[in-house]
Amino acid sequence: MSKKKKITTSTGVEVRHKPLGLRIWNNRGYYLMFLPVFVFILIMYYWPMLGIRYAFYDYKPVGAPTFVGLKHFYSMFKTDAFWSAFRNTLELSIMKLLITTFTAVIVSIFLNEMGNLFAKKTLQTIIYLPHFMSWAVVASIFSLFLSPSSTGLVNGLLRDWGILAPDAKGIYFLASTAWWRPIFYIINIWKETGWGTIIFLATLAGINPELYEAADIDGATRMQKMRFVTLPALSNTIITVLILNLAKVMNMFESVFVLYNNAVYSVSDVISTYIYRQTFAIALPNYGYSTAVGLFKSLVGCVLVLICNWASKKTRGRGIV
Q1: On the CB side of 242, how many CA atoms lie within 13 Å of its CA?
Q2: pLDDT tens, 206-225?
Q3: What is the number of alpha carbons within 13 Å of residue 83 lying toward its C-beta?
Q4: For 72, 90, 208, 209, which has the most beta carbons within 10 A of its beta carbon?
C-alpha cells in the first residue's frame, strides 16, 4: 500500500496528498477530454520541430540531405539581405508597437471622456471593425486608395487640391522607399488601434471615481484630470502592454507580405518574408538555409521572451511565462 505524502496548506492544516496514479485515475474523465488536444499539440507544434536538424544539412528538392554543420549560419551572417531583413524586422515591429500603443491610449482616453453613451458605443464599434478584416482585404482596399492611376482616391484628391498637376504622374506610395513605411504605420493604426483600446478602456473603467471627485473639489480642469489622474492610472497598463508585445516583435509576416513588393525590399523585407522568398521564390531552394534562418529567428524571439519575462517580474511582480 503506497503511503500518502503529507502537505501543509496555506492555513497551516496538514492533509494527505494522494499518489499521482490515484489522482490520474480519479480524474480520468478530464484527461480523456484533454487527450485529443494533447495529441493535436504534439503533431502540429512539436513534431515539426524535428525538422530543425535540417539547419545543419544541405537539403534541396533533389538529392539526399548532406551534413554541412554550421555552414548555413556562416553564410547567413555574411549575407547583406539577411541583415537588412533583421534590421527591418526590429525597426518596423518596435515602431509599430509604440505608435499603435500610443494611439490606442489617446483614443481610449477620449472615448472614456465622451458623455453620450450611444455615440461612444457607436464609435467603439466602428473603430473595432477593421481588426476583424483579413490583411488581404485591407491590402486590397489601400492598394485601390493609393493607386497612382486616375482611379486612386489619394492621388485624385492631391490633383483636386492642386498639390499634383492634373497631368502629373501619380505617386505610387506602396512602391516608394520614402513612402512605404509611413503608409504601413498608418494602415496598422487604422486596423489595430480599436482593438488595442479594449484593455485601456477596461483599466479606465476601474479607476476610483473618488479621485475625479477630489480633482473637481481642487478645481482641476478636464485636461488636468486627464493628465494627473487618468494617465498615471494607465501607466502600469501601458508598460505591461509594451512588455508583453515586445516578445512578439520577430513574428511579423502577413501585414508586410500583402503590402510589400520588390521595389521596397530595402525598407520592408523582414525575417519571415525573407525566409518565405528563400523557400518558395527561387528555382532550387536550399531548405537547410531557410531552416537555419528560421532557427535563428526563433532563438532571438526566445531571448526577447526571457528579457520581457524579466522586465515583467520587475514591473508587475510576476512573469509572462
Answers
A1: 16
A2: 888 888 888 888 888 888 88
A3: 6
A4: 72
